[in-house]
Amino acid sequence: MKLDLAVRRARIVSGCVLVAYLLCHLTSHAAGLFKFEAMTATSAILLAPWQTLPTQVLLYGSFLLHLSLAFVALFRRRTLRMPAGEALQMLLGFSVPLLLLGHLVGVRLGYALNDWNPSYARLLGLYWVTAPAAGAQQAIVLVVAWSHAMFGLHAFLRFRPWFKRAQPWLLLAAVLVPSLSLAGFAAAGFDVAQRAAQDPGFVAQAAAADGIADPAGGARLAAIAEAARSCYLALLVLVLSAWTVRRLLALRRTIRIAYPGGRQAAAPRGVSVLEASRLNGIPHTSACGGRGRCSTCRIRVIDGGAALPPPLPLEAATLARIGGCGDVRLACQLRPTGDLAVVPLVEVAAAPDGTRMPAHLLAGHETRIAAMFVDMRGSTTLAESMLPFDVVFVVDRYVRTVTRAVEGAGGIVTSVAGDGVMAMFGHHGDGARGCREALAAAVAVHLAIDGLNGELARSLGWTIRIGMGLAHGSSVVGAFGEVGGHRLQFLGDTGNTAARLEQLTKERAVPLIAAASILDAAGIHLPDAARASVPLRGRAEPLEIVAIADLAALGRAAPGGASAAT
């Protein structure tokens, strides 16, 4: 465990060094927007600290260490099945050396072997005049290296408490830095190409000024670069071959894991229970992707537990945080050496059915709709008392549950912001039907959240409380902001009113407050529900509302109960 922690820290530190250098390099490229002389002047400031012997050792040592740890991590993987984002990060990372070796050999070895010191004038002349294919490759490696770095930084920072607040600004920086760098590279290259067109000897003069006038030296560097690429590919093939051999040998020593319902997984000894589930196509919840940072993959061992290894510190800390008893383990951390039987303790969420929007609804049109806003109570307490990925899991289940209930009643979820869900009803033009659908959806959401709470109480020891607001008014309905996306939205103050009514449920201690006009249009009368006229921010006139404490009574009063919308 201590070795794994040291390796992880080494990978993070070496990666941060490489990101710092890459940021300086891309910033100097961005200065090319003001002609290549500006790029040269900026690089002299930003890259000069990286030219000393200690920083050179730090930079190239970090590169070699980071690459070596990547090969080690690849070899140690038990399976190559992984989430798409993780696979993309790995692919980008192993692509960087292949794309970058030619540049490293030409610039760094050229200086060491031939005393060459190419300026930006020489390099831009090469990339934009002499060998534009090499210039395109440099642009590609810029995007690939930066994307890999941003994947890594996101994985490292996303659990920090400040990250959610800073995320929009960090995303802006992550997009702007490579965009400005590419723009500066193009502008400076165009500037050099224009000068070369006016003076055919411009590029040759720049090369001569840099001491680059030896064709034999250039050919020697090209041969070294090609050999380096071949060695790198050979090493990658060697690691993959060793991984394949180890996996084939492991398949000869398999264990069996029994799941509820008679399902079984056969897997090589040494893989985790979560990896065994994935290898055998058995659904298994894991919000953090199997890194031991959440508890959603937890299992109860019902047979074979006596021979299991004890939890390592990472697993033990997570189990202590959730109060897990002796037979509860994390599937991503438990690597059984013999057969066992387990019961996953967190149910797998079913994916909602996708729906296509009818073409006749895509054009914007004004109609009277009912808007629903649903919000989860106590989300701050939830975030403070649970592991970050457990919070993500609970909120995701909550949003999916509300969405299914809304769509089942005939509504459309138009936006989700955190734990706030906005939906509309009546987009089809039948106002009375839309009001009935909205009331039926409120009952359906209430019942669905009750069902979800039963699952969450068993799985995570947590239950959800919600508030709902229903508003009624004219809105413009159309596919706004979704070019070709076929997703309906509505514009107008109806949604704001629904959100303010939901806020009012906290003061009145009821689960639902609806505009009285919704019940009137739906033909529903609730004698025990309190009616009142209340002022709302943004409205000139008070709004008549109905505070509904008993949603079961609403379900009975609606024609056909909660299925009235159908």
Description:
The structure is a single chain. With 566 residues, this protein is α+β, with helices and mostly antiparallel strands. The chain folds into three domains: 2-246, no CATH class; 254-344, Roll (Ubiquitin-like (UB roll)); 359-563, 2-Layer Sandwich (Alpha-Beta Plaits), CATH 3.30.70.1230. 56% of the residues lie in helices and 14% in strands. It has 17 helices and 13 strands. The strands form two sheets. Strands 6, 7, 8, 9, 10, 11, 12 and 13 form an eight-stranded mixed β-sheet that branches. It has a five-stranded mixed β-sheet with strand order 2-1-5-3-4. Helix 5 (120-130) packs antiparallel against helix 8. The protein is flat. The two termini are 57 Å apart. Residues 351-363, 482-486 and 560-566 have low confidence and may be disordered.
Quick take:
It contains 17 helices and 13 strands.
List keywords for this structure.
disordered C terminus, Alpha-Beta Plaits, flat, Ubiquitin-like (UB roll), single chain, 566 residues
